[in-house]
Design brief:
homotrimer; about 475 residues; four-stranded antiparallel beta sheet; alpha+beta; 23 strands
């Protein structure tokens, strides 16, 4: 009985599109959703009515059409909509402005094979299947390549690039990043392990809603997309936004957690675990997640779609228990000064006031975030030049944020007379004006040895600059 | 009970040799099989009789010997035969021409460890085990290296190179490609995910025969080998030939499906699923799979071995349902012209006539195939020079096939007045003479705008050539 | 029921530190152990008493402290001790010499997340979690980076480098090797499959002791560390020391099995499987494993700790059955010469005499070992220069060992008149003086053809040298 590998837990491959939701009230669902807009579908007896809607209604106009083939996959970009049927292999492309001709094509599927995901850009169309067939077409449906990879579970594309997520019990969970342009056909990353946190059904205390979503999207993937600067992003069932930095270099690329939406909601709710508010991701513009704030028990948006919200990047280093401790200290202090505080006052009226982050923690977070953002920008400028024109300006502002965060930590270290920590912080400071500021802080803290060390550092850097 | 990882489904490591078959009628089986020949064994009471046979009987002479050790692994090359015993670790090398001395050697195995595969070339001997020990010897059995890798399940070798397939529940299914030559010791690919389609026993409707083979070869691997141009190839239980193109470059290598034998059999059978004919792979010569066509319910060949057949590469993009539709249209048309067609006529007499492929589909397939073959050849010429002397000639013929396929698609697009598609096809055309042909097609279709675009393209290329 | 991936066998992430042992008699255990020393803990009602001890008592002084937080992770280096609590995320750093200030810090953990491992060097602190969060700090606890990787199960660090082991059912077992220095942030190896032999509980005949250890350390990892020359090493449940050679180059790195402790114990016990002696690893100095020889049924050391022992590298190519055969031949011969041997004599008195290795096997082992050691040294010298000053001297001695081993094999091949083998050995010889020795051996064996071949080889090399 143990001669074969067939006892593996089976995994059902499902059609997965970025931002797609399960069918809900009134037989409606979103087929896909991103920074550009959203495609929704209503079941109507024999056929489906599809609506393509846009966030920028000045630039695009909403449109409808009927679908008799039961398309269950969708990719939306600024130029068109690609639909796919996972079981039959049917593909259908529609251009938004109707100038270009629409087309329909059939993908061959072998026994048991499903199309799991499709992605369209203005240059390329990518189609991935549960058996690992990856098919690439030009925008008009001309086949350019057929390749076998590990089973594909999700795709996102930008220009000539595709970001693919793979999974099978035999191949693990991995991702690829490759490009098929007129001049190059190259993998930046090939089936590297993807450090996605997977749904933990056994541990669940969150009940049926999550289970329902996992049934719909087995890996719990809410969305995947390229950021405005071209970096691959992933938003999974743990509500953490992961971003792949320096993806062009296999030895330098890293998946960075740049936002824990649960933590942000907790902070917004004044330190409470509000289970009635959820974040549904759309896209990432520089340091801001564009998203839908969903209210209610469902984790995905229903109809009509609320207006998009913004949530800023925050590197997840905050420790809730420490924040609560500090908050309680602060409150008991302020209650002391005000006079008698009522438990109602703290537990009732103020309950949705944003919680305060202890200054050291906040400075450490800002330090890391400035570093991450400046690394991303530098990589983007080096490879693609200035995309929006203000990148170098942002970079110098990030350098200043970085040094300011260090100065705040430095002031703290001085207050605690922690010479070793203070010295190690001085080494990290980038700009001379920040070193001058550090000197003043050390003077005020009456630490002449430290002042001397900073001055030595300044001189050493000055000489180094002259010699180079 | 859930503290350990021991609940993993167990996998029984089996001795796997390229092209080997299970024991069949009369206690006989093939121990290995490839382009050079085949090694067969008959159980004879206490010992086994081994026969080494060759396809080129002008060059090689068949020979026999007795085996008292129960060898269950075999590798055959143009110079000798290597045998191995998976449980005891015994190795035995025999030279075909008997000039070189034969030798026997013992491989150490730890508790529960098995040799799973061996591979011999005229320069190197590779031995892989279920615990991941990879041992490399020179042809005379001198140990050159011992390395630990993920558990090995199959090996094929050429000159100083080895292509290894790895599997374990903890490490997934992967492959390596490395070389240990007198001057270099390098990995081209190291334990990269192998996009092999694995046996789907749960889904099986094909019954006991396949199960029997999976019991014999747990991953369903029928054969693995290097092509005549030195590219690694794999033929698994899905009867698709996979070929690794550009394997020297980690960022450009891709597994290409270059032949779906099931589809070819279906076409040969006039669009029927004939379950009584199977393809057993031997090797790949340029664009042609050398194989045994097996008739009957077994998927592997019995005794005596039928003569080898040839099957040409075909990129799997054909859609059966579309082909059948077109075929039915065509038939009903021809029946209309002939008069009354009988259902006997269609279902009986013509049943084994090869089915016709719709012209657009055929052109798309040829387009992709010419591209694949020319990429393979270019990579081979760049790295190894011309191996057979006619490579550059073949290349220019492939360029012409590529352009011809584009012209056929172009003619189709013109007929449908699909200007966008037609224009995108023009961009792909490589040769000026093909562009001239395109002009004529566009003129005939009365599309002067298109003619103008082609002429512009020609001029732009002409100028570019001059400037370079 | 089969729509999700939740049926995977669960794996309980445990706190793992290099050389750590489970709690034993008297509520004591070692929290970590390496070449520098060991940290032990005793449970005392409400709190734990921790002792940091050193092997070099001239250089370091043992110290104690009380722990009220229940730290269960530990990393010890020459400058300090880092402690961690897997469930709360508490970290505590203590400097050995007390000049530097100690510090305490909290790591944020999400629902169900555990810190699985920590590693401290004099420059960096690395913290890995079961959800794959890798956090890097400077020595004073300043956060430098947060990254998401596959779940981490063990860590070891040296200077700015970290060697991480990852595992999850979805990601397989893999390792990373990366560096975060002031000037570079780069991966040498990123989540590559780790060819570790995993505990085989199903096959176990060794009973409860091993099960107990696997419960404590689910992957059976006894220790991981960097060698004195900076190469990552791993010692798992199979008691084989694995070393990663040429780790700076993704295409050349290889995991080499350099010592099978079970085999060495078997040899030391005169060819018996002594289940009452075990090897507990501390570190690797050049070609010698520093370890604790543990006596009794437990595989890990108890209190007090025995003095460290040394075990030399041996490439695992010895075949026990062959050694026993030869030994028996040898014994029966010597018994014949002595007169009547008593079975007591062989089975009793001499039982712990080290078993003799047949000369060919010993020469093959020495050949491989000299090659491995010289490759390691060359890589180290090329990249880091001479670390201890005597590296080039060792290298030339290794070259000589290599040639001597070849000469011994050559003499054997001559004795057997195996011309082909003898010729292939001549090609491997590196030094001219060894070729001269080979000439003499061939002359003595009366093989003039071989003598001529050697002379030709010498002349060819001589001319090549002149021309270069």
């Amino acid at each position: 009985p143990n001669t074969t590998v067939s006892q593996y837990p089976s995994f059902r491959y499902k059609p997965v599109s970025p931002g797609a939701t399960p069918f809900g009230r009134g037989g409606r669902r979103y087929m896909t959703m991103n920074n550009v807009g959203y495609v929704s579908v209503v079941k109507n007896n024999e056929q489906n009515s599809v609506t393509v809607s846009f966030f920028d209604i000045g630039r695009f106009r909403e449109y409808h059409f009927e679908d008799v083939f039961g398309y269950d996959l969708c990719s939306l970009n600024e130029e068109g909509t690609l639909l796919g049927q996972s079981k039959t292999g049917m593909l259908h492309y529609r251009s938004h402005n109707m100038i270009h001709s629409n087309w329909t094509k059939m993908i061959p599927l072998t026994h048991g094979e499903r199309i799991t995901s499709i992605a369209a850009t203005t240059f390329r169309i990518f189609v991935g299947s549960s058996h690992g067939y990856m098919r690439i077409f030009n925008r008009h449906g001309l086949p350019l390549a057929v390749e076998k990879v590990s089973p594909v579970v999700a795709l996102a594309a930008q220009d000539y690039k595709v970001f693919a997520v793979h999974y099978s019990p035999y191949h693990g969970i991995s991702y690829s990043l490759f490009e098929l342009s007129p001049t190059a056909s190259k993998y930046y990353q090939r089936e590297c392990p993807l450090p996605m946190t997977l749904p933990q059904l056994n541990l669940t205390s969150e009940g049926d809603v999550d289970k329902q979503f996992i049934k719909f999207s087995p890996l719990g993937l809410k969305s995947l997309f390229f950021s405005a600067y071209g970096d691959p992003c992933l938003f999974g069932s743990d509500n953490v936004l992961l971003l792949l930095s320096k993806w062009r270099s296999p030895s330098e690329s890293r998946w960075l957690p740049v936002l824990d939406a649960n933590m942000e909601l907790w902070k917004m709710s004044g330190g409470k675990n509000n289970t009635q508010i959820h974040v549904w991701p759309l896209g990432l513009n520089y340091d801001t997640l564009n998203c839908i704030l969903v209210k209610g028990k469902n984790i995905w948006p229903e109809f009509p779609l609320p207006l998009p919200s913004e949530m800023e990047m925050r590197i997840p280093i905050l420790v809730k228990s420490r924040i609560v401790e500090e908050e309680e200290k602060r409150k008991s202090k302020s209650e002391d000064t005000i006079g008698e505080g009522t438990s109602d006052g703290a537990g009732g009226g103020q309950q949705n006031e944003e919680i305060a982050i202890p200054p050291t923690m906040a400075a450490e977070e800002e330090l890391l975030r400035s570093k991450v953002l400046s690394d991303l920008l530098k990589d983007s400028i080096e490879n693609d030049g200035e995309v929006f024109g203000n990148e170098n300006e942002i970079l110098s502002s990030l350098n200043w944020s970085y040094d300011k965060a260090l100065l705040r930590l430095f002031a703290g270290a001085c207050a605690e007379q922690n010479m070793e920590m203070a010295t190690s912080l001085v080494k990290e400071i980038k700009q001379d004006k920040a070193l001058i500021a550090a000197t003043k802080i050390a003077e005020r803290a009456e630490l002449p040895v430290l002042v001397k060390k900073i001055n030595e550092t300044r001189e050493a850097r000055f000489e180094e600059q002259i010699n180079n």
